[in-house]
Amino acid sequence: MSLIDKITSKTARIGIIGLGYVGLPLAIAISESGFSVVGIEVDKEKASKINVGESYIPDVESPAVEKAVDEGRFSATTDFSAIKDLDVISICVPTPLSEMHEPDISYVRSAANEAGKYLKPGQLVILESTTYPGTTEEVVLPILEESGLTVGKDFYLAFSPERVDPGNKTYGIHNTPKVVGGITQQCTELARSFYSQFVQIVVPVSSTRAAEMTKLLENIFRCVNIALVNELMLLSDRMGVNIWEVIEAAASKPFGFMPFTPGPGLGGHCIPIDPFYLSWKARQYDFHTEFIELAGKTNESIPYYVVSKISQALNSYEKSVNGAKILILGLAYKKDIGDTRESPAIKIISLLEGLGARIAIHDPYVDEKVIGTKIYKSATLTPDIVSESDCVVIVTDHTGVDYNMVADNARLIVDTRNKLKNFVGSHIVRI
Ligand SMILES: NC(=O)c1ccc[n+]([C@@H]2O[C@H](COP(=O)([O-])OP(=O)(O)OC[C@H]3O[C@@H](n4cnc5c(N)ncnc54)[C@H](O)[C@@H]3O)[C@@H](O)[C@H]2O)c1
Q1: Residue 91 CA, ligand 1 centroid: distance in Å
Q2: 365 and 336 in contact (C-beta within 8 Å)?
Q3: Is the confidence at residue 314, as pLDDT, over 90?
Q4: Is the CB of 18 under 6 A from ligand 1?
């Protein structure tokens, strides 16, 4: 049977390399659409959890994993030789930055090496990890062709960026359009058919580079606009203008304006990192992506601004940061999820610790977090812990937190999310 027939009859066997925030929800969505899916994961503990029907990703409920596993539509393994029995292989491994702020595509290389070792004619390989334009063609393709097989003839290769937005209850895998670009027209067509089986709209583009660049444009758009509004927040603060009021008023314009809000700084595995994949690649073309650099610089400065705001607020109460009891509300990088990767809360806590503050934290989604040499355990949020703190800082605006109680009991609050916009009082300081 040809690959296209296997895909349309859902008899194609699917493999997902890397079962993290992206790979696990994808594996479940594919298996729920009727395919049989194997997850290939280097982390033994994650693979074992999957095989007993346990999820470790908040967006995926354990019963969904359990059902897929029990019905024999999903299993996980650490053994890459499973690849030889698959028809479609999707690579969802991390793409972080190195210490020198350069793309670290070692995970992509390693996954491609494994795929290449077991590659066989008729297979479709799709890279989903966010990366710079050229990765699929310049890095993954040569590795796969070391097998002696030729792309477009013996096997197929495409790039399709993952657009998952953790915690988003409106847009998930099925109703978020999927962009695909293949090395050849047939690669694009096969990838388009595959995703059409479980995604409502698939958007084909002319090349893997165009698909790679699409994802970066989306994330750079957010990064630059957040930086712009953060810069205007800094200026508004000096001018005595309430930036939140200004954004709300500007958003009343029904066309030509899209509201972005200031905050304590960027976080997560995508927006603070992905733009630098493009800046790095641009240098190869003697091109400087100045918007990205400037946005990065502005966004990185915001946690320092938050700390200075806390310091000024304490100062007006004749207190110094040194020795102050500070309660941080929210460690996750955004509301209603437990992901702390690149979270601005981590930088703010480190800076405050360096100044001698005594930090307590509360985050309903994070039990504990190691920052530097210290373990921070999430404290129970009670009127006592709030009233005993010299300052409460709202870093992440999780939905389930009792902000009325916080506003009523705190001596001083620094609100980085305008969560207390309906509260008045000189003890509430907005960024
Ligand atoms: N998290 C998001 O919201 C999001 C959204 C869109 C795109 N992305 C992109 O998707 C990619 C994956 O991100 P993530 O958040 O899922 O990362 P993650 O760290 O949550 O998951 C990656 C998984 O891959 C595994 N892994 C690493 N190397 C491997 C290998 N060689 N073989 C098999 N498994 C391997 C890890 O153990 C981990 O479980 C990144 O490129 C990221 O930029 C992430």
Answers
A1: 9
A2: yes
A3: yes
A4: yes
How far, in Å, CA of 324 to CA of 336, rounded? 28
The mean pLDDT of 250-271, rounded to a whole number, is 94
The pTM assigned to this predicted structure is: 0.93
Could you count the other beta carbons within 10 Å of the beta carbon of residue 370? 9
- Residue 138 in tokens: 């310049």
Do 203 and 261 have their domain in common?
A: no
Does 237 fall in a domain? no
Catalytic residue among 92, 187, 223, 270: 270
From 38, 93, 214, 336, mutation site for ligand 1 pocket: most ligand atoms within 8 A of C-beta: 93
Identify whether residues 290 and 417 lie together within a single domain. Answer: yes
Contact status, residue 10 vs residue 1, Cβ threshold 8 Å: no
Helices (H), 159-289: 185-196, 208-239, 243-250, 274-283
Nearest CA to ligand 1 atom 21: 20
Q: Among this protein's residues, is 270 annotated catalytic?
A: yes
Contact 62, 54 (CB under 8 A): yes
Predicted pLDDT at 169: 87
Q: Is 261 in the pocket of ligand 1 (CB under 6 A)?
A: no
Distance 23 CA to ligand 1 centre (A): 7
Q: Are residues 264 and 197 located together in one domain of the fold?
A: no
pLDDT of res. 19? 98
Domain check: are 59 and 203 in the same one? yes
**Whole domain around residue 330: which residue ranges?**
243-430
180 in any annotated domain: yes
Are residues 72 and 188 located together in one domain of the fold?
A: yes
Q: Are 212 and 179 within 8 A, CB to CB?
A: no
**Ligand 1 atom closest to residue 274's alpha carbon, by position in its atom list:** 43
Is the beta carbon of 310 within 6 A of some atom in ligand 1? no
Is residue 116 within 8 A of residue 147, CB to CB? The reply is yes
- Establish whether residue 129 lines the binding site of ligand 1, counting it when its CB lies within 6 angstroms of any ligand atom: yes
Nearest-CA residue for atom 7 of ligand 1: 162
Residue 155 shares a structural domain with residue 261:
no
For residue 82, report the distance from its CA to the centre of ligand 1, in Å.
19
Note every long-range contact of 423-426, with CB atoms under 8 Å and residues 24 or more positions apart, other chains counting: none
Looking up residue 124, the CATH number of its domain turns out to be 3.40.50.720
Q: What is the mean pLDDT of the chain?
A: 96
Point out the domain boundary residue: 153, 188, 208.
208
* pLDDT per residue as tens digits for the range 24-35: 999 999 999 999
